Predict the structure.
Amino acid sequence: MALGIVWFISILITFVHLTPLIVPEEERNFKEWMIQHNKVYSTEEYYYRLQQFTENKKIIDHHNAGNHSFTMGLNQFSDMSFEEFRKFYLLTLPQNCSATQGHHHVRRSRPNPQSVDWRKKGNIVTPVKNQGHCGSCWTFATTGCLESVNAIVTGKLVPLSEQQLVDCAHDFKNYGCMGGLPSQAFEYIKYNKGLMTEENYPYTGHQDTCNFKPSHAAAFVWDVVNITAYDEKAMIDAVAWLNPISFAFEVTADFMHYKKGVYYSSQCEKTADMVNHAVLAVGYGAQKRGKLYWIVKNSWGTAWGMDGYFWIQRGKNMCGLATCASYPLPLVH
């Protein structure tokens, strides 16, 4: 009997050693995601991130099981809570959307086209960039807009410096990695007499000493146009006939998981005081079922959304997107 027990225990130990541990599906998904996004954690952080990932995946799966105009998906932010995400990627200081009013009217003799996409009009929109762990979205919306405006006028598409704005534009109510607004950044460029190129003043993703060299200025602003608040029709006119435009809106937790389709939210506010993210509208369109949308360039890299872009519902001031739109009039030397 004793020999039988010993034999049984021996077989059991062998079986335990030879049989791989069964990894729960959530943890297997998490490890696959870690490999995909080159994530490495300490043991303690690993279990915290696993928990965040699991919670986010449940939100994503629940949303995708419903009937919505947009789909959610895992991305580089899927191990973060929205509170962490907001701290690192969104404007953290209140914005008031005030700046000198520019005088520029869209003159048109015919109706606006059904759809517009400036990416298809030649070499006018720079590739999607990545702001990293810095609330500098406002600088990318600014450079993206000025890059396109200059390209339309000069025929040359030159990437411009976000870092100069992060480091140097404080006197115009901008706060580096803590936030700012494109309208105020355009004002800075106008009165500062120029913005350097990305090549001459490269992005670091953290605030440093201002290193602007006037002799290296490559883009200039003659005036700033702030589209009348809540006038989304004027935004459409500008994008249809003139150029891409910057706008700000309020990001809430579900937008962090956006993958594709026309984004809308019933959770966000529609007022200027709640905007926390700045982006670039490069066009607009409509789905076959009639849902209108903006085509928007983001600054979270190409792994997020639709290769770095998203669509957001048009005509409803969705999340306050019509409260803070602006674009520069270039000064060409």
